[in-house]
Amino acid sequence: MTSSQTAPAAVKILIAGGFGVGKTTLVGAVSEVAPLRTEEYLTKASIGVDDLAGVGQKDTTTVALDFGRITVSPELVVYLFGTPGQERFWFMWNDLVNGALGGVVIADTRRLETSFASIDFYESRNIPFVVAINCFHGHNTRTPDEIRAALDLDPHVPLLIGDVRERPFGRDVLLALVDHLMSLSVAAG
Questions:
Q1: CA 3 to chain centre
Q2: Tens digits of residue pLDDT in 22-51
Q3: How many CB atoms lie within 10 A of CB 130?
Q4: What's residue 8's pLDDT?
Q5: Rounded-to-integer distance, Cα 36 and Cα 63, Å
Q6: Which residues contact 172 (CB under 8 A, 6 or more apart)?
Q7: CA 14, CA 10: separation in Å to the nearest integer?
Q8: Which of 104, 84, 110, 108 is nearest to 95 (CA)?
C-alpha cells in the first residue's frame, strides 16, 4: 500500500440464530474467501445438552464462530461473524457483537422458538437487524404475517424468506440489512 492509498472502511455484521438454522451456511454462501469455520463433530457428550429436535441429520456444530468477508469496493469491506447456536456458547455473543453495525437473525419456521434469544439479544442492545427465514428444501409452514406475529417482530424489521444456501438470497439478506440501516439513519438524522 502506498502512502496515497488508505485502508478500506470495515463494516462488521453479526449473524445469529438457533442451533442448526443455517448461520454457517449463510456465511459460506456469500463470503468471497473460504470462510473460517470452527465446527466440530457432535459427540455423545452433547446428548441431553444440545437439542437436536428438527436437526436430526446434523453431525457438526460451530463452537466459536464463523467468519467471512465481502469486498464491496476498494473503499469498503464487510466482515461477517456467525455466532454459535447452542445455549452453552451464547456467552461468546457478547464479544462477537462488539463493533457490529447490524445483525441478521436466521430462523427456521419448524423451530421458530430457537430465534427468540437472537432477537432479544439484538433488541436489548439496540442493534438493528433483519430476519431471514431459511426454507430448508423449500419447506416453509407459515405466512410472513404468521411468522411476524410468532416472533413478535416490530413492523419496521425486514423479514425475508428463502434458502441461505443460495448466494442471491444471502446477498438479498445483507442488502436488506444495509437498506434498513440507511432508513434508520435517515429517520434519526
A1: 36
A2: 888 899 999 998 766 666 555 555 555 555
A3: 26
A4: 79
A5: 12
A6: 160, 162
A7: 13
A8: 84
Residue by residue, what is the 3-state secondary structure of the chain? CCCCCCCCEEEEEEEEECCCCCHHHHHHHHCCCCCEEEEEECCHHHCCCCCCCCCCCCCEEEEEEEEEEEEEECCEEEEEEECCCCHHHHHHHHHHCCCEEEEEEEECHHHHHHHHHHHHHHHHCCCCEEEEEECHHHCCCCCHHHHHHHHCCCCCCCEEEECCCCHHHHHHHHHHHHHHHHHHHHHHC
Q: How many residues can be counted in the chain?
A: 189
Tell me the pTM: 0.82
Mean pLDDT to the nearest integer, 10-20? 90
* Residue 11 grid coordinates: 463494516
The DSSP symbol for 22 reads S
Three cell numbers, residue 145: 404475517
> Please, which residues have CB within 8 angstroms of residue 50's CB and are 6 or more apart in sequence?
19, 42, 61, 86
Other residues' Cβ atoms within 10 Å of the Cβ of residue 60: 12
Amino acid at 139: H
User: Phi and psi of 124, rounded to 5°?
Assistant: -70, -20
Residue 85 phi/psi, 5° resolution?
Answer: -95, -25
The pLDDT tens digits of the residues spanning 85-127 come to 777 677 778 888 999 999 999 998 888 898 999 999 999 999 9
Supply 158's cell numbers. 425486514
CB atoms within 10 A of CB 40: 12
